Amino acid sequence: MSIYSGDVFDMAARQFGVIANHLGIPMDERDRLLLPKRAITVSCPIHRDDGSVEVFEGYRVQHHLTLGPTKGGTRFAPSVGIGEVAALAIWMSWKCALVGLPYGGAKGGIRVDLATISKRELESLSRRYMQEMIPFVGPHTDVMAPDMGTNEQVMAWFMDTYSMYQGRTVTEIVTGKPVASGGTLGRREATGRGVAHLAKRVMAELAIDLNRATAVIQGFGNVGSYAALELQQFGLKVIAVSDHTGALYDAAGLDIPALMRHATAHGSIAGFSTELQFDPTQILTLRCDVLVPAAMERVIDAETAAKLQCRVLAEGANGPTTPDADLVLAQRRDEVFLIPDVLCNSGGVIVSYFEWVQDLQQLFWEEAEVTRREYQILDRAFDQMIARANADNVPHRTAAMAIGVEKVRAAKNMRGLFP
Ligand code: NAD
Question: What pLDDT does 379 receive?
Answer without folding.
Answer: 98
